[in-house]
Amino acid sequence: MKWDLMCFFFFLYLEVEMAASATFTIGTTQTGRSLPQSNSFGLKINSQVNFKTFSGLKAMSSLRCESQSSFFGNETCAALRATFAPKAQKENQNLTRNVQPQASYKVAVLGAAGGIGQPLALLIKMSPLVSDLHLYDIANVKGVAADISHCNTPSKVLDFTGASELANCLKGVDVVVIPAGVPRKPGMTRDDLFNINAGIVRDLVTAVADNCPGAFIHVISNPVNSTVPIAAEILKQKGVYDPKKLFGVTTLDVVRANTFVAQKKNLRLIDVDVPVVGGHAGITILPLLSKTRPSANFTDEEIEALTVRIQNAGTEVVEAKAGAGSATLSMAYAAARFVESSLRALDGDADVYECSFVQSDLTDLPFFASRVKIGRKGVEALIPTDLQGLSEYEQKALEALKPELKASIEKGIAFAQKQTVSA
Q: What's the superkingdom here (predicted)?
């Protein structure tokens, strides 16, 4: 990649944090805002002491280049370092050069041969933090693993087929992602998926409890409003439930909200962050447009139209695909973002926030989707401020979603409590 092209990308995505040290980030946000977005890939330059200027911006003279994506190869990183190094070395002889972060985490994708699982596995393969990628499904996973293993990124790919190989897939894993289940088809609601997907989640989470009880568990299988409570009950029955490590992945609602708001208000998409609370189906999805960053003004008509579109975006895709599938690609993207956030938290990043459906005391419901701070041990804190100072429309919508969300949670709990799980 030529330097002029690198500069283009640099300034396209540049955000600067000036503190005791400065951070330049490409392809991510890592500012002092309380609403940081995912750091799924990019090139980060951490600096330690001042150097004069960089294209008019005050910057630093000692640089540490960290390639956070396999897209930035050795040649590109070498060119970047060579451009900065002469100035930096004059003022600081202890130049830190760390071109690539250490890949050290094992991730398992359960349902890796499916419509979400395949693109999700590919995106996770791109993460420089992943050392081992375990792909599991009941069939057709060997070909997926062979295909993805040809990508020249550090992680080692292994395939596991059928219940007899599930335990080996899960041993020693740090993050388990569960997209397994049947997809939604035209005319189907998330509740229509319940009987099939509830049993799948029950069996997979049972295996997780037996083989990697300390792992972060990311539940994607719909209906999330019910499958997360199912997972919690199964883990309780096995005596290994840690509410801080069980996540319902609702990131797709945030991704959609950010996209639709940016389009509507002609904002730079990388700047937009809309918290989405509640649940992950229909009216239980509540985008808090009054909390949009950067601040934006919406008419009553815009608020209603955007809210309804975000709530029904999955149906929009199902109908557009006309029976050929559901929102598999955008879901894979959103899930990969959440996985990368979890890996960064495990790796010690102290500034990781995402919206997720988790055990919560922010409302009178036992589970609730809201912004959470994620650390090495899972959920470090729930962020209550998003629910403070809501608009009248949002407050009414919040109260309206509670009965439906409560019913879905209770449905999942009731299903799990009827199951017999061996200790």
A: Eukaryota
Please state whether beta strands 378-382 and 57-60 pair in parallel, antiparallel, or not at all (unpaired): unpaired
Cα 227 to Cα 232: distance, rounded to the nearest angstrom: 9
Q: What is the per-residue DSSP string for 50-93?
A: EEEEETTEEEESSEEEEE-STTS-HHHHHHHHHHHHHHHHHH-S
Q: What tokens does 39 get?
A: 């750091």
pLDDT in tens, 280-329: 999 999 999 999 999 999 999 999 999 999 999 999 998 999 888 889 99
Instruction: Choose among 88, 65, 62, 86: nearest CA to 75.
Output: 65
- Residue 5 has, within 13 A of its CA and on its CB side, a CA count of 5
pLDDT at position 8 is: 43
CATH number, domain containing residue 321 = 3.90.110.10
Same domain, 202 and 264: yes
Tens of pLDDT, residues 396-405: 999 999 999 9
Residue 97 lies in a domain: no
Judgement on whether residues 319 and 193 belong to the same structural domain of the protein: yes
Q: Output the six-digit token pair for 271.
A: 């700047």
Structure tokens at 24: 């330049």
Distance CA 399, CA 394 (A): 9
39 and 15 within one domain: yes
- Give a yes or no: residue 98 inside a domain: no
- Cα–Cα distances (Å) from 108 to 172, 196, 240, in that order, read 10, 21, 19
pTM: 0.78
Domain boundary among 47, 68, 91: 91
- pLDDT of 244 > 50? The answer is yes
Contact (CB, 8 A) for 247 and 190? no
Q: Which helix (H) or strand (E) holds 398?
A: helix 392-417
Q: 224-237 and 392-417 are packed helices; what angle lies between their axes, rounded to 10 degrees? A: 40
Q: Residue 61 belongs to what domain range?
A: 3-91
Question: Is there a single domain that holds both residue 10 and residue 122?
Answer: no
| Matching residue, tokens 């003279």 | 61
Domain count, the chain: 2
What's the Cα-to-Cα distance from 233 to each of 86, 173, 174, 228, 242, rounded to whole Å?
59, 21, 21, 9, 11
